[in-house]
Specification:
Strand order of the largest sheet: 3-2-1-4-5-6-7
Largest sheet: 7 strands, parallel
Order of helices and strands: EHEHEHEHEHEHHE
CATH architecture: 3-Layer(aba) Sandwich
Number of strands: 7
Structural class: alpha/beta
Bound molecules: NADPH dihydro-nicotinamide-adenine-dinucleotide phosphate
Radius of gyration: 17 Å
CATH superfamily: NAD(P)-binding Rossmann-like Domain
Number of helices: 7
Length: 247
């Protein structure tokens, strides 16, 4: 495989499972040294690091709740100290609590807002203090941040709409440094958060054009391209990888 990210350093939040783990492995396969953060599951984080190292790469796992500013600050500083610099930030940590909005508690609303929006703000701000010129900031938004076909996602979709506008807006503030800011918007992807089987999966699969869930590697491939030098003229863009859900 071409090593398009050779010599680069990437930080992937929520990189221990699901989409984030696939992104971390793919960026490492493309030549980057990679730090991942995770909240709770140290074993999964260690597995990702081991898989990257077994393939000849360099990786580091850091426990840091993306919703806790002090933890995020320490994680970014630790990644930079251990890996030498920062070229690519992937804001992947995020979650959904699918349920009718009228049944959603204030605590649940606060949780998705704090992780999906506030955590992304804080991580991006700290990362920008360390990021090299011509760096890459990549948000993992969602296709529901633009158009939502699935009841039960009102609060989550609103947070991903915020991710979209943040990426577009920030691109205009850091472009003078050659830093690009883009929002990768997955559709239904088979992970612990959104398993491809079960009642919840049926309506999501039905609204794809391809009549299937996506694989984590299909999101990672798009992220790897956006992170690469070839994507230097793509910024402020919302890049959807959703099997045609929003077609
Ligand atoms: P998973 O729940 O499968 O994995 C989440 C990852 O994030 C885990 O590594 C988890 O680590 C970590 N994480 C969770 N909470 C925190 C936290 N507070 N701080 C730091 N890390 C945390 O999610 P997915 O892979 O499915 O989703 C990843 C991203 O993709 C999210 O932003 C999601 O909104 C988005 N997305 C997902 C879609 C899908 O269909 N799966 C569709 C569209 C967007 P730990 O186990 O330690 O908590």
């Amino acid at each position: 495989m071409a090593q398009s990210l050779k010599g680069k350093v990437a930080l992937v939040t929520g990189g221990s499972r699901g989409i984030g783990a696939a992104i971390a492995k793919r960026l490492a396969a493309d030549g980057a040294r990679v730090a991942i953060t995770y909240a709770k599951d140290a074993n999964s984080a260690t597995d990702v690091v081991k898989a990257i190292e077994a393939a000849g790469g360099k990786a580091l796992a850091i426990q840091a709740d993306a919703a806790e500013p002090e933890a995020v600050q320490a994680a970014v500083e630790k990644a930079v100290a251990a890996l030498g610099k920062l070229d690519v930030l992937v804001n992947n940590a995020g979650t959904a609590i699918p349920k009718p909005f009228v049944d959603t508690t204030l605590e649940e609303m606060d949780h998705v807002i704090n992780l999906n929006i506030r955590g992304m703000f804080v991580t991006t701000k700290v990362a920008l203090q360390h990021m090299n010129d011509n760096g890459r900031i990549i948000m993992i938004g969602s296709c529901v941040g633009e158009r939502n076909l699935t009841p039960g996602l009102a609060a989550y979709a609103a947070t991903k709409g915020a991710v979209k506008m943040f990426a577009q807006s920030l691109s205009r503030e850091v472009g003078s440094r050659g830093i690009t800011v883009n929002n990768v918007q997955p559709g239904p992807i088979d992970t612990d958060l959104n398993p491809a089987s079960g009642d919840w999966a049926t309506p999501q699969k039905a609204v794809t054009a391809l009549n299937r869930y996506g694989h984590v590697d299909e999101v990672a491939a798009l992220v790897a391209f956006v992170a690469s030098p070839e994507a230097a003229y793509i910024t402020g863009a919302n890049l959807t990888v959703d099997g045609g859900t929003n077609a």
